[in-house]
Design a protein that fits this description.
The structure is a homodimer. By secondary structure, chain A is of the alpha+beta class. Chain A has nine helices and ten strands. In chain A, helix 1 crosses helix 2, helix 2 packs across helix 4 and helix 3 packs across helix 4. Chain A is elongated. At the A-B interface, helix 1, helix 2, strand 1, helix 5 and strand 3 of A face helix 1, helix 2, strand 1, helix 5 and strand 3 of B. Chain A binds a DNA duplex through helix 3 and helix 4.
Chain lengths: 237, 237
DNA sequence: TAATAGTATTTCTAATCAGTACCACTATAG
DNA sequence: CTATAGTGGTACTGATTAGAAATACTATTA
């Protein structure tokens, strides 16, 4: 995600994002100036600046001509955070309680939802988590793993030898990139493949039989690794 | 902001939001069922459910027919929060530094930007803040005022007698709803009117002369109030 | 044959954006 | 003094796209 996309994600249009960046590099300017410097058509430059003002990303400098000045990024981000918190509050206390029934087998499709679920499993784990992932995937969730270690969780990695994360128990195993195997708290598992958005699909399960099967498979894998090689235990600190 | 709008604000479409709520009240369902129960056209019900799955708000229950189950609200909110933090991080460390020049007089138009600026002034104040607002406006920013009191700021309210916020210094003054007068740290002021979006416009200023004028005006107002009435000082706790 | 499950296509609207035309004002070169 | 270039601003048109309503079509099952 680049800067422009991030600005679009918080509610600006593409042109507004462009103009916001332009306002940061220059003195306050009129729509005319903004149009000239950005290449955006005059009409759209004016409406873009007005849009920025409406969304709290720019303010007006009144005078003989109407100029706009950018609201500094930190302040704009504070606005957005405040707004986001309100939105989340509305959702969290407005949503009806989930019916208790939880299906034992769920399919999660698409790259992003899988990564989100993976991070959430690590974040929600209470005692321990086993991660059978290639180095590429470990890299994407490194902050979450580190937070889990700080929370005092037992974190076991089955991944390539060159990965080093303090506080984790590490078994060297060459994993195929994109293949995912996770167990959290001996109660939920996720497994499947993670490539681009279309070809990514994972099974998430709470089914006790499957979880047990998975646990034993991972335990066996670890046993075989320790028979071959020695354990690399990276101590905390 | 209602629930559906909040869900739309985090990236769902109106139909997806509707379907997400429906999924919460029922067992997992197919597009066919969702269409029947929501009144949404079949085609759109299917694409809506697929959209929810893509956005991490629903998961698939594989079987003879494809059913979708809602991801529980708390989990979906965690996804959104994670995503939002990433976006803010991109903006905050991607934005070029603001040029130091800050115009002395700025116009802030529109209801929302004004309220955001008001909250931000309170949040960013270092020592003291004077708020000349009607009870209606005080109500909107109550949490921010309470946080300021907790931060140990001197918070002075010039507002109607019935407003009660612990830890603030309160002078009873009947204010016209929509009229705003604020000074923060004796260095910045905001004043203007706040009604509906079109008719709302405020001046924000760092100009020392104007700030001083404003301070004296408020001091005089307080002096007159205390000559007439007695001070209501609500002690903390 | 009715209900279930799923797909495809058409139409409509609104937002975004590119492009252009037009008007008013000011400064200045000839 | 006038012509013209530059500045500041508004209005309109057209293309593209996402979202959504509506309908039609196929296939399977009870």
């Amino acid at each position: 995600m680049n800067l422009t996309e991030a600005l679009i994600a918080v509610g600006l249009t593409r042109l507004e994002a462009q103009l916001y960046l332009l306002l940061h590099s220059e003195e306050p300017m009129t729509g005319y100036e903004a149009s000239k410097q950005s290449g955006i058509s005059r009409s759209n430059a004016y409406s873009g600046l007005a849009g920025l003002a409406e969304k709290g990303a720019a303010v007006c400098v009144e005078g003989p001509v109407r100029q706009y000045s950018a609201v500094e990024a930190a302040e704009f981000c504070r606005y957005q955070s405040r707004r986001f918190k309100e939105i989340i509050a509305v959702i969290e206390d407005g949503m009806p309680e989930q019916r208790p029934a939880r299906e034992p087998f769920l399919t999660i499709s698409g790259r992003d939802p899988i990564i989100q679920k993976l991070k959430d499993m690590i974040g929600q784990a209470k005692q321990r988590i086993y991660l059978g992932l290639a180095a590429r995937e470990i890299g994407m969730i490194r902050p979450e793993i580190e937070t889990a270690v700080e929370r005092g969780l037992k974190v076991v990695l089955l991944t390539s030898a060159d990965v080093q994360i303090a506080g984790t128990i590490h078994y060297a195993a060459e994993k195929v990139p994109g293949q995912i195997r996770v167990i959290a708290d001996s109660s939920v598992i996720m497994t499947g493949t993670l490539h681009d958005d279309q070809t990514s699909s994972c099974l998430f399960s709470r089914d006790q039989a499957l979880v047990t099967l998975f646990k034993e498979a991972m335990a066996n894998e670890i046993k075989l690794i320790t028979m071959d090689q020695q354990i690399t235990h990276v101590d905390r600190d």
